[in-house]
Amino acid sequence: MALLPDLGTEIVIPVCAAIGIVFSLVQWFLVSRVKLSPERGGESPAKNGKNGYSDYLIEEEDGINDHGVVVKCAEIQSAISEGATSFLFTEYQYVGIFMIAFAILIFLFLGSVEGFSTKSQQCTFNKEKLCKPALATAIFSTVSFLLGAFTSVVSGFLGMKIATYANARTTLEARKGVGKAFITAFRSGAVMGFLLAANGLLVLYIAINIFKLYYGDDWEGLFEAITGYGLGGSSMALFGRVGGGIYTKAADVGADLVGKVERNIPEDDPRNPAVIADNVGDNVGDIAGMGSDLFGSYAESSCAALVVASISSFGMTHDFTAMCYPLLISSMGILVCLITTLFATDFFEIKAVKEIEPALKKQLIISTILMTVGIAIVTWTCLPSSFTIFNFGAQKVVKNWQLFLCVCVGLWAGLIIGFVTEYYTSNAYSPVQDVADSCRTGAATNVIFGLALGYKSVIIPIFAIAISIFVSFSFAAMYGIAVAALGMLSTIATGLAIDAYGPISDNAGGIAEMAGMSHRIRERTDALDAAGNTTAAIGKRYAVTFYLGFFTRLSECSFFKDLMLHLSFDSLNLFSGICHWIAALVSLALFGAFVSRASISTVDVLTPKVFIGLIVGAMLPYWFSAMTMKSVGSAALKMVEEVRRQFNTIPGLMEGHAKPDYATCVKISTDASIKEMIPPGALVMLTPLIVGIFFGVETLSGVLAGSLVSGVQIAISASNTGGAWDNAKKYIEAGASEHARTLGPKGSEPHKAAVIGDTIGDPLKDTSGPSLNILIKLMAVESLVFAPFFATHGGLLFKL
């Protein structure tokens, strides 16, 4: 028996979630103390203390309380916030229609499995027991789908509001020193991270307890219904990622091609008509889209683990504490991330630019070390010493220490993949420096070197995924792979804090440029932004976790992801590596649950039904990528034409005597993203339905396997290629080394070639790459939810 009683579990989980919410509100309060209004009097705000307050950190600007600068920052922030809010509301109107229509579809399909009967049915995995009727599964799956969709939307929207609330405040704090600006940006990211982690945990736990009032001890039926929660979260994340990615990259490409290459003006120059749309895009794509994406990963990995636990000894013996092991890991993660955050904001001070990179890296390392200890505590207090795990029709005996190792494998493998991603995308290392050097001979060689880097960067992560799969599955079958995914996601609060920090710092730099602040202020915000760009590549390990989840049951079948630009720590690229890793693990777990639920005994690749699905599934990521890339290109084309038009027709615009028409550019990005997000979304959502209904579950299993194997590798390659091109450009712009200075300065031919490479890479790393993570997750969880219908009524063409 577990040391922690069931009553203790019922207290610990909601209390930890509440602690996370309270901590996020405290961080919000601390950020709000930075006022977006001119300070009264001439008294300096300098204080002696930590985190940028010391005299040697402040280096105050002359006119630090200048009324005009503060007012201008507030106006720019307001414009960015209004643009982002307007876009998200427009997007959610379209997505809301889809959400309701798909919820009706779930109810009709699942309810028809037993002809909308209200009689109890034989359980799928325990034939001796009776489970709740299929109609109940249809109703509760529909409710959980709507709940997951709503929570995903709220997660993205809150993240956007937090980011737009903090960007100008970070800019104003940069006047006093890089330390204070770092604290403001990181605390703002922590607000998003802890809100999402705590809300996701709390809503899922409440849903389980409400459903339990009806299902009682029918754990199999309860957690089959709860899988709709993951489907709802990922469905909204798909549209958020694709729509937001098209928005931000259309604006970014338009602003860079005309502004930097043709007009030779700085990034975020207020004369550029696309500059506001570009800054809005950072929030709706990198913040709102990422928030929804990671919420979807968390919901899906939790559901996959709970489904397997329900048909193992935990469910058979009604051991509620052991059943909630995945949720207890997430609860411990909130406490660990809270302590980790204090290391960045309170325990240590940032004294200089060169300390930003180590501070962010320490967040990942400290959280991983502390979480290892936390996992050990949860494992030994919440699990019996020995238990059995469902293993494709049999029960596998597992020790608690083996499950501990499974979680740790996911936790540490994700960190390793993240740092490998950093090696390939940071300009501190030779791969990106070689890409930058290739710009000497023009954009063509830059593109060739960048593509080669992206392909090569896939090798180590795939080996790491393969080893993680083998170890986790050997110890605890598919449940081991599911909890390995949760191990990586356990530190999601810290990961999201780092991820959100990047776009906030990027916006802060844009606001500094547009407000006409001094070059010294822009250098500080650029240093923050450079640090933020590399950490995101490590963070994208979070999506690849989905791949392991998919392999859980696939493996059971017959066949088996000094200005810091010299030492750039790019949080977005770093975080992208983690996201791909999470997507891989979660996808494998869900695929395993689908194979079991659809009663597929063997997935034989030599069977024509499976093989045709495998080929088509491997093609889908290419089709999806083509659609998203072309969507960005079409929107960018309109943006480039509009920016050129304004420069050519508005007198005095280049001289700074006239104001550009920002609103038209914002409208172009909004209209294009709303229109273009529908076809890729329809491809992902309709494929499992069409294949399952007309070709059956065996062909669908092949489609899922094929899309996973090709999708995770394309996603890693695309993200790392784009990240490398981005940092090669920054390497030249910074001129922090003798080699970099021979390629610069800004406006030189090598720099222009680097800008073109960066422009090509933008839709790869910020639209297609991240969206592919959702493709492989969403298709798997959708197949799992509809598995009863496909197993009963699917394969119409083969029945003719």
Automatic annotation (TrEMBL):
<dbReference type="GO" id="GO:0009678">
    <property type="term" value="F:diphosphate hydrolysis-driven proton transmembrane transporter activity"/>
</dbReference>
<keyword id="KW-0472">Membrane</keyword>
<feature type="transmembrane region" description="Helical">
    <location>
        <begin position="12"/>
        <end position="31"/>
    </location>
</feature>
<feature type="transmembrane region" description="Helical">
    <location>
        <begin position="324"/>
        <end position="344"/>
    </location>
</feature>
<feature type="transmembrane region" description="Helical">
    <location>
        <begin position="133"/>
        <end position="160"/>
    </location>
</feature>
<feature type="transmembrane region" description="Helical">
    <location>
        <begin position="572"/>
        <end position="594"/>
    </location>
</feature>
<feature type="transmembrane region" description="Helical">
    <location>
        <begin position="181"/>
        <end position="208"/>
    </location>
</feature>
<feature type="transmembrane region" description="Helical">
    <location>
        <begin position="364"/>
        <end position="383"/>
    </location>
</feature>
<dbReference type="GO" id="GO:0016020">
    <property type="term" value="C:membrane"/>
</dbReference>
<feature type="transmembrane region" description="Helical">
    <location>
        <begin position="606"/>
        <end position="624"/>
    </location>
</feature>
<protein>
    <recommendedName>
        <fullName>H(+)-exporting diphosphatase</fullName>
        <ecNumber>7.1.3.1</ecNumber>
    </recommendedName>
</protein>
<feature type="transmembrane region" description="Helical">
    <location>
        <begin position="94"/>
        <end position="113"/>
    </location>
</feature>
<feature type="transmembrane region" description="Helical">
    <location>
        <begin position="403"/>
        <end position="424"/>
    </location>
</feature>
<dbReference type="GO" id="GO:0004427">
    <property type="term" value="F:inorganic diphosphate phosphatase activity"/>
</dbReference>
<dbReference type="Pfam" id="PF03030">
    <property type="entry name" value="H_PPase"/>
</dbReference>
<keyword id="KW-0460">Magnesium</keyword>
<keyword id="KW-1133">Transmembrane helix</keyword>
<keyword id="KW-0406">Ion transport</keyword>
<feature type="transmembrane region" description="Helical">
    <location>
        <begin position="458"/>
        <end position="486"/>
    </location>
</feature>
<dbReference type="GO" id="GO:0012505">
    <property type="term" value="C:endomembrane system"/>
</dbReference>
<keyword id="KW-0812">Transmembrane</keyword>
<keyword id="KW-0813">Transport</keyword>
<keyword id="KW-1278">Translocase</keyword>
<dbReference type="InterPro" id="IPR004131">
    <property type="entry name" value="PPase-energised_H-pump"/>
</dbReference>
